[in-house]
């Protein structure tokens, strides 16, 4: 039996980041969740032109020196400069332009007086407060100069990066592509979701659940298939999928029964390991390499499949994506006692108490308990040498929401 850490290290160490690819930088939302493979440098100055930070009047600061509420300075208004105005304009000393936020500053102006400090006039404006040169002006290049680094290599692209990405004047960006994941459920007992299971049959819920987990983790699901309990069929389907996927995740067929199709297909092939891991759920695990594609053979019990995905498949696939392997964990205190099997690291389904930092168990901890799984909010990590989880104990938990 391997410890949990030994096996997790083994699967993480077996994979490398995918080769980078150059993609259109304009597809900003399509790039979310990908990691940059090289630094992104701006090709242009930002802002691209000197412009106003306020709705108001572009002036020469010297012209309104001494302006005050009881002695306003009046200036003729040459005209309006709205945002998007492409004209090249000039300010003559002793005059002003009415200007909007983001509009290009006319040459010769050195300050903007916001409209609230004026009477808002359109032919002539009375300015009630003096401002310094530079007031309310955003200078060309003050944010970024051409050549400045916008994002270092290794940046996980998030919504906050989109404005810089789209404004940097870059056509292509080199990123690690999204890992392609194929899902395969095994078992003669499985029926398609939506079909009525007969006696002895169950709905294939692992396939869609694993596909949903992969999607939520930011991977690309390229196939969701179901196969029967023969080694030949499993080998054939997995070999086909290996050509189109970076990772294949199977569920079922890895324990000690008489008809374990993953073992029938690959045990003894030299490129697969079937092991027992000291954890609960998730004890039987298989991991292998099929024509360069990583194959995770997860146990079939739905809770075992989910936990195994989160602690083995997700970390290794995040490495393929150029990311840190581990999903986020948070600290929490135990509000209600539960038991954990001796010698196995438990991933217990728990819910958070109101304040979010206290957890209690939900439902039975059997690997088939779907109601408790649906109601759970996190997996509490109980060390292998703990058999009684005591009230007040501090544990790390993996929240089941926001896995990306
Ligand atoms: N003699 C032993 N029996 C078992 C052992 C063991 O060590 N010795 N380990 C147990 C543990 S722990 C687990 S976990 C399971 C793993 O079994 P398999 O991976 O071989 O999975 P199956 O036998 O195919 O299925 C188990 C269970 O899950 C249901 N299942 C399977 N696939 C799906 C699916 N796609 N959707 C919904 N439900 C699914 C299946 O019907 C079974 O009820 O083995 C224990 N046995
Ligand atoms: O290890 Mo199994 O996954 O306990 O039910």
Model description:
Its EC number is 2.10.1.1. Keywords: Magnesium, Metal-binding, Molybdenum, Molybdenum cofactor biosynthesis, Transferase. It catalyses: adenylyl-molybdopterin + molybdate = Mo-molybdopterin + AMP + H(+). Pathway: Cofactor biosynthesis; molybdopterin biosynthesis. Catalyzes the insertion of molybdate into adenylated molybdopterin with the concomitant release of AMP. With 404 residues, the protein is α/β, with parallel strands linked by helices. The protein folds into four domains: 4-16 and 178-320, MoaB/Mog-like domain (Molybdenum Cofactor Biosythetic Enzyme, Chain A), CATH 3.40.980.10; 21-44 and 154-176, Molybdopterin biosynthesis moea protein, domain 2, CATH 3.90.105; 51-138, Molybdopterin biosynthesis moea protein, domain 3 (Molybdopterin biosynthesis moeA protein, domain 3), CATH 2.170.190; 330-399, Beta Barrel (Beta-clip). The protein is 17% helix and 30% strand. It contains seven helices and 28 strands. The chain has helices at residues 4-13, 162-167, 206-216, 231-242, 261-266, 302-320, 370-375, and strands at residues 21-24, 35-36, 40-41, 51-52, 56-59, 73-81, 96-99, 111-114, 124-127, 137-138, 149-151, 172-176, 180-186, 190-191, 202-203, 220-227, 247-251, 272-276, 279-280, 284-290, 293-298, 330-334, 338-339, 345-352, 358-361, 378-382, 388-389, 394-399. The strands form eight sheets. A six-stranded mixed β-sheet has the order 16-13-17-21-20-18, sandwiched between helices. Strand 20 (284-290) and strand 21 (293-298) form a beta hairpin. The longest helix has 19 residues, at 302-320. The chain is elongated, with a radius of gyration of 31 Å. The two termini are 31 Å apart. Bound molecules: ligand LQZAQKY5 and molybdate ion. The site of ligand LQZAQKY5 has 27 residues, from helix 3 and helix 6.
